[in-house]
Amino acid sequence: MLNPRLDILGPGPFQRLAALLDGVAPAAGLEPLNMALGEPQRAYPDFVAEIIDANRHLYGRYPPQKASPELRRANLTWLERRYGLAPGRLDPERHVVPVHGTREGLFMMALTVVPPRVRGRKPAVLLPNPFYHCYAGAAISAGADPIFVPAVRETGYLPDFHALDEETLARTALCYLCSPANPQGAIADRGYLERLIGLARERDFVLLVDECYAEIYDREPPPGALEVALVGEDLDGLDNVVVFHSLSKRSSVPGLRSGFAAGDATILDRFFRLRTYGGPFMALPADAAAAALWLDDEHVGPTRDYYRGLFDLAEKHLGGHPGFRRPAGGFFLWLEVGDSEATAVALWHHAAIRSLPGAYLGRVGPAGNPGLNYLRLALVHPSEITDEALGRIAAVL
Ligand SMILES: Cc1ncc(COP(=O)(O)O)c(C=O)c1O
Fold it and tell me: What angle, rounded to 10 degrees, do the helices at 383-396 and 300-318 form?
């Protein structure tokens, strides 16, 4: 007997893409390029390799389950610098838990906080639609109903959780928000965050804000849920709120696997308890390199400029396309193209560009699948490569 929940989940977006393009030949004579995967291609700082090398004797030790105190302190001092939080207000023992890439943490947090029943009913987990696929996998694995809330043009590409019906809100255990959003690139402003934190407290659900693109933005730094929640002196401001941050995009080290959860100490205590049974460890040499990266801001501005430059190129090639919109944050182009699967096949066949159909990032709701007519293109490759690739894409579209 196997767990039937996996049948509800079905194959993930990249498995579906592989099946879609299976047997389709890429355009002959062109270098194939993967713009489906959001994998940073920029070089990470040299000190990463130096620190890992200097600490390699530590591979012989079991790492501490909550990572090193140095890493936890580095996580919090980064939050203080990035969001202007009062130094020392957050406690490295209570308000932060390092995770090994935010993906596992976002997933495990659902297993931590979703109870078997909420007010006698099956729990609901709210998530944006379209969405980062981990949220749906987590909701279903935790035994909840995932509630897909449209994040479309009419809602500013952010989900309107307040519009949900009473029955759903009354059984909500957890809500995922992503800002800057993957795939839409929308940023939740302070007012939006304030209202959502208010709803989470009024209805007593946990609000998880995935802020892993917090450092990749076009103009204004995106506000964070903790800075909005922490008004006044009172640490009760953290109630019901947990944020997730990652080095993967900020420091171009998706392979290092460093992120953290910060916020409500009661939730984090339970999260940590679950992790003592089945949580992953981060090798100590990687832990030391991650701490140094969180402490360093020098490499981050040039990284942001790099992505800005890629969006300038996108605007040059696709700015005249009716479906083009320059996102406020993140590094994805969320391009309205009509039939997204047919367009992905055409781009592969005629331009040797791998792109991700938005249909695979959304779920069918009452108004259909909101990703159906969009294509997600990751702008991550160096500018010469991206420039040439965008030219190919424009020619096909
Ligand atoms: C929205 C979002 N959240 C979380 C992640 C996971 O990042 P990591 O596990 O590398 O921290 C990603 C990665 O693609 C993402 O796009």
Answer: 30
